[in-house]
Amino acid sequence: MTVQTSSDLVPADAEEGCADPVMPDVIDTITGRRSIRAFLDRPVSVAEVKAVLDAARWAPSGANMQPWEVHVVQGATKARLTRALLDARNAGTAETADYQYYPTTWFEPFAARRVALGVQMYRALGAARSPAARKESWNRNYDFFGAPVGLLFFVDARLETGSWVDCGMFIQNVMLAARAYGLETCPQASLADYPDAVRSVLGVDADRRLICGISLGHPDPSAPVNAFERSRVPVESFTRVHD
Predict the structure, then answer these.
(1) In Å, how far are 72, 86, 152 from 198, measured between CA atoms?
(2) Residue 62's closest CA among 162, 187, 198?
(3) Which residues contact 156 (CB under 8 A, 6 or more apart)?
(4) Hey, which residues does 222 pair with through a beta bridge?
């Protein structure tokens, strides 16, 4: 049996500046991923969800701790969770997320990127000028954008920041693995706005911190919100090469 080493995967002319990928499907899977905010009414089997998680579990983690915990919701449980989150939102309950996701005061260049995304998204939703439409669009977060499956990610409260980094790599693996099965996702910090409500519905212990959720399903190709132009800053803007 021939064993392929990492050096075998590098093109012969790589040192001359060639950057052609030897596994282009991997690159396409990464660059083709986008956050889907409209899903088809089409079921996703438990077997498919487990297959996605089976691939994602190979994410790296410090000391192989594998700190992630996943709760899969569908059907009646997902409906109960949606109702609990909407009730909390509509009652004006203060958000009590287990951690601070965004800065308390926005600053550049992050503020401009946030505004640009919001303009694109709400324009695609047809809610650019209507507060009521914007509220309805936001509430769709708690309905998992109509996806048949929701994933909620938890971590033990006794663990430190490094384990949250590990969970982030695992969550990215989930999103990429989903694409291999013809599924798409939307990662949502909004699903962690009311962690006590989530823990109550799912029977999760108080010593588990809710990181975020993911909507999982088949994307609706006709929805404009799934098709607006995405943007990323160039590599040169965030990279320094030290010789």
Answers:
(1) 12, 11, 9
(2) 162
(3) 67, 69, 163, 207, 208, 209
(4) none
80-110 burial code (b ≥16 CB/10 A, e <16): ebbebbbebbeeeeeeebbeeeeeeeeeeee
Q: Contact 175/214 with Cβ under 8 angstroms? A: yes
For 195-231, the pLDDT digits (tens) are 999 999 999 999 999 999 999 999 999 999 999 999 9
pLDDT given for residue 16 in this prediction:
55
Helix spans in 64-194 (H): 75-90, 110-125, 131-139, 161-180
Give me the residue label for tokens 């660059």. Answer: 31
pTM: 0.91
CA gap 67, 163 in Å, rounded: 6
Torsion of CA 78, 80, 85, 88, to 10 degrees: 180
Report pLDDT digits (tens) over 112-162. Answer: 999 999 889 888 887 666 788 888 888 999 999 999 999 999 999 999 999
Nearest to 88 by CA among 186, 190, 215: 190
Q: What angle do CA 190, 194, 196 make, to 5 degrees?
A: 145
